[in-house]
Amino acid sequence: MKEKTLKRLSLTLLAVSQLILALDYTIIFVGLPSIAADLGFSANSLQWVVSAFSLVYGGFLLIGGRLSDLLGRRRMFIIATALFGLGSLIGGIVNSEIMLILARAIQGLGGALLSPATLSLIMSNFAEGKERNHAMSVWAAMGGVGLSLGLLLGGVLTNYFGWEAIFLVNVPITILIILLSPVALQESKVKSTTRHYDLAGTVSVTAGMILVVYYLIQSPLEGWLNRVTVIPGIIGLCLLLLFIIIEKRTIEPLIPSRIIRIRSLVSATISAALFSASFGTLYYFLTLYTQEVLHYNAIQSGVSFLPLTLSALVGSKFINRMISTVGIAGTLGSGMGLGVIGFMILTQLSANNSFLVMIPGTIIIGLGQAFVFTTMFIAAGLGIEPKEQGIASAIINTGQQIGSAIGLAVIMAIVSAISNTSGSLEQMETALLTDAVHMALFIEAIIALFGVIVVFSLRQKKSSSLLANK
């Protein structure tokens, strides 16, 4: 098979893996009412269909990145895809609450191993510069498409085939990826002379991350100072502090200290956290607006996100040109700035609007999303040695997960405090819910504005290596 054809096939596989991960983030939302009705979930237990995935995904990302580096990126990619497919299969055939939550946890574990393996395979299979930037833009575009397409696809599948289909749709895709991966993807891994896997560091950081993410997920429901959430949160922080101590003393640390001193990676990770706290939480609040305020069904709600999807696709075509013209920091800053504008435009939504009023704001946000999502991963790969691409990918993905969890928790806490309500937003009257969505959008605009400031801490000279092959 010709090298050019192999490159296209490898990029297709990596892009599709990103697509199904992004789809899984939003596709579950529209199926929740049907799942609750069929399996008898209570309101409190139903949220664990979503949280089980996030909890395991966020907790195992760092070890997933390290395993990719040591055991082989392609090998971990195949194992992770198989786990994700297994979780999807179990989710589509179960008939009990606990088994569905377990299936979501298995999907989360697969995602935690798959995400860093996918990104590090892009770094190792595509040359730095124009080729890698193109691969990154395609990969990132699929992420943006998946987020918005998930809402539409989830509605279609649930309405016509039942909620089980939102899980089973992943199974044939993962099987095809597994079969083609040995042909299309080149293996790469780190040769370790000590074979030291930093077990103590792995256990402490994984348990610590799981407990901290649990605190962030559960506190908006149980209360920020409730001992049910505070005690696990404190234990989690202690374990993360223990992890720092362990890393300073171990032979081969899970996160080498030199990595966290690379300014471009730190800035990119902070940018990823701010991006997820603003752009990433938008889908939740706009879904609330379209379904609870405008009373759209799941399919209509999904269609309302198509302008954002299309603009994100268009924006991905201009990534290389943007980086060539204004550099990495300029591209990130422009994307965050577009987000600020789009969020502020959407604050004008009212209960009497149709989704047509959403179009200007979502188009601008889609363009900004494309600029930020792609470029922050390009920035994260600068100055990273090939043997550490997996852990670097895991670090920025962890930033995304933590940013999303913290962002949504903080926004919900502020909205609840100002609205003087302790119930869920879905239970609000239309006028109050509209005000709550406005408030959330305004907070997202502030977060994105802070992101504009942060991204300009990137060293402009670091972007020059990206342009060498243009």
TrEMBL record:
**InterPro entries attached here?**
MFS, MFS_dom, MFS_trans_sf, Sugar_transporter_CS
UniProt main location, coarse: membrane
Return the SUPFAM superfamilies for the record: MFS general substrate transporter
Q: What sections of the protein cross the membrane?
A: 46-64, 76-94, 106-126, 138-161, 167-185, 197-217, 229-246, 266-286, 298-319, 326-349, 355-382, 402-419, 439-458
Keyword set includes Membrane = yes
Q: Which UniProt keywords apply?
A: Cell membrane, Membrane, Transmembrane, Transmembrane helix, Transport
Which residue range or ranges hold the Major facilitator superfamily (MFS) profile domain? 10-463
Instruction: Please name the CDD domains in this protein's record.
Output: MFS_MMR_MDR_like
Q: Which superkingdom does the taxonomy of this entry point to?
A: Bacteria
* UniProt lineage: Bacteria, Bacillati, Bacillota, Bacilli, Bacillales
Give the subcellular location: Cell membrane
The membrane-topology field of this record reads: Multi-pass membrane protein
Q: What is this protein called?
A: EmrB/QacA subfamily drug resistance transporter
